[in-house]
Design the sequence.
């Protein structure tokens, strides 16, 4: 059956709304990035000024980028490692395993605002749960102002992010592990392979594609952590948890510099493209098929 | 000691270690939630002396205050309206799009698919500024319709991605057979493809409902009047107003999360399927 002409009607409504409200603004952002605009009055074309400022005269942009990298690296490394380990322990469909998987998945359904409030309370320096528990255990020396200390605040938020999203990555890995044919393990076992060797030679090569996807997805997700950071610290103290997305928001809606914020968005987009591309290159090396 | 007992002992210590790790991580997941749930039943002054334990004076005042005084029901309804309209529109558009991508195939199918797949790689924060510009040019700021239209456009790529991935797994012959019976595209779509895709549609619906219900960014950008705020935005406002009145704010968090948590208890399969499909397949 040849595709009928009526198929264009299938495409039209969805494509239209997507083009108007997503594709067009994405391109329009480029134009805006060459302008000065306060959100109310007329736009003025200022050429490359915004980009020049972003690359040479804006320390906070660099700081936000560094924070983004710190956040991304801690989340991607720990979350991928943790979810793969737990998925290996849980990939068989026994009753207990299914229970643990649903328990671990639970935080992923909460809103980032809810997660932010929960961890804001855990980390609270006065009534907070963590310092309270440390105090009861006689470990007062370990108590910190978890979100107030600029040196550790971004990692405290990264921990909340890992808490909230590990369960989702576990189920992705479980699906990948369940797709590995059981014969391969039996063959490895007959050849006298130990657990580690079986992992190294059977599991890892076959689960690597899933790991690539998980790492890429987690990277993008960590860059999207706007809601969590906005609700937890708003970027403070002294920009120590400001990431690119919150900084763009602040530039536009607090500084009323929409043109400059659009230029920052372009920089943000390039950074994400480079990181995603690099990651795929890097992890592709592990693929066997 | 022979090899058999050695292996059995190895397996036993292995399984003790395994259980330990699993329970430990389970507690890490559960305890923060439990502490917060317990806090909602304590008066504020008790929370400061007893942040961890069982409530000594059990009270429902925090919930009462949220429902009666802070009219959380209003925000709840706003979230329902925005989420339901967004999800139904997305399902309507994306099932048709996925069907067309599947039927077109070739360069047209690929172009369409690529256009939407690319949208998944662009975080919404990247184009929030120009989207805000567009919505304010159209005089749609602080309207539900503006928020819904943007949410449809932003979240639709995920549904197109999931549904196209599913349709690819269908045998072409099924549609061919339909054409023998003289079915047009509409009939093939309604009678064959839609019914077959139900589980994939449900998974997308659940996955996206969670995203839209929980979204803070777009309501934050567009909505400023109190009678149109959605739950995440309202919670943020409560936090600004009540600062350290944790029990009350947490009661709000519980009420705002309740529908998703209830849905999770009954429709877990679709949550997990959606999460896997949304991040892997396609």
Sequence:
């Amino acid at each position: 059956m040849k595709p009928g002409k009526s198929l264009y009607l299938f495409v039209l409504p969805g494509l239209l709304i997507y083009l108007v409200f997503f594709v067009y603004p994405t391109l329009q952002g480029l134009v805006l990035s060459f302008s000065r605009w306060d959100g109310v009055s007329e736009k003025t074309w200022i050429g490359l000024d915004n980009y020049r400022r972003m690359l040479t005269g804006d320390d906070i942009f660099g700081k936000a980028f560094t924070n983004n990298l710190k956040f991304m690296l801690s989340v991607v490394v720990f979350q991928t490692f943790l979810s793969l380990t737990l998925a290996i322990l849980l990939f068989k469909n026994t009753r207990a395993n299914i229970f643990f998987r649903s328990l671990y998945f639970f935080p992923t359904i909460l809103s980032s605002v809810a997660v932010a409030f929960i961890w804001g309370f855990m980390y609270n320096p006065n009534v907070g749960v963590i310092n309270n528990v440390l105090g009861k255990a006689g470990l007062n020396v370990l108590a910190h102002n978890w979100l107030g200390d600029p040196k550790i605040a971004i990692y405290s938020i990264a921990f909340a992010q890992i808490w909230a999203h590990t369960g989702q990555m576990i189920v992705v890995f479980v699906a990948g592990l369940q797709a590995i044919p059981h014969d391969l393990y039996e063959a490895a076992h007959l050849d006298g392979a130990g657990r580690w060797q079986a992992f190294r030679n059977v599991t890892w090569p076959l689960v690597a594609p899933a790991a690539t996807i998980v790492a890429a997805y987690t990277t993008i997700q960590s860059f999207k952590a706007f809601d969590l950071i906005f609700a937890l610290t708003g970027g403070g103290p002294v920009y120590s948890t400001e990431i690119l997305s919150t900084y763009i928001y602040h530039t536009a809606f607090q500084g009323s510099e929409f043109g400059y914020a659009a230029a920052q968005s372009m920089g943000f987009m390039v950074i994400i493209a480079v990181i995603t591309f690099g990651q795929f290159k890097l992890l592709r090396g592990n693929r066997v098929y | 000691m022979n090899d058999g007992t050695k292996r059995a002992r190895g397996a036993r210590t292995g399984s003790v270690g395994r259980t330990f790790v699993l329970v430990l991580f389970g507690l890490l997941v559960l305890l923060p939630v439990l502490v917060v749930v317990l806090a909602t039943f304590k008066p504020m002054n008790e929370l400061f002396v007893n942040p961890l334990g069982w409530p000594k004076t059990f009270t429902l005042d925090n919930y009462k205050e949220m429902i009666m005084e802070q009219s959380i029901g209003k925000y709840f309804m706003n979230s329902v309206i925005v989420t339901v309209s967004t999800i139904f529109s997305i399902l309507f558009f994306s099932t048709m799009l996925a069907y067309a991508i599947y039927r077109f195939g070739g360069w047209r199918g690929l172009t369409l698919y690529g256009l939407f797949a690319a949208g998944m790689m662009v975080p919404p924060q990247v184009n929030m500024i120009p989207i805000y510009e567009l919505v304010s040019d159209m005089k749609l700021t602080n309207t539900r319709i503006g928020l819904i239209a943007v949410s449809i456009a932003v979240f639709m790529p995920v549904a197109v991605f999931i549904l196209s991935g599913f349709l690819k797994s269908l045998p072409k012959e099924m549609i061919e057979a339909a054409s023998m019976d003289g079915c047009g595209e509409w009939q093939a779509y309604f009678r064959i493809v839609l019914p077959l895709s139900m589980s994939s549609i449900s998974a997308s619906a659940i996955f996206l409902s969670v995203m839209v219900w929980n979204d803070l960014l777009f309501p934050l950008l567009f909505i400023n009047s109190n009678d149109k705020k959605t739950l995440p935005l309202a919670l943020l406002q409560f936090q600004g107003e009540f600062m350290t009145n944790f029990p009350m704010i947490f009661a709000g968090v519980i009420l705002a999360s309740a529908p998703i948590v209830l849905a999770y208890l009954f429709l877990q399969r679709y949550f997990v399927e959606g999460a896997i499909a949304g991040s892997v397949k396609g």
The CA atoms of residues 231 and 256 of chain B lie 6 Å apart. Chain B touches chain A through 92 residues (CB under 8 Å).
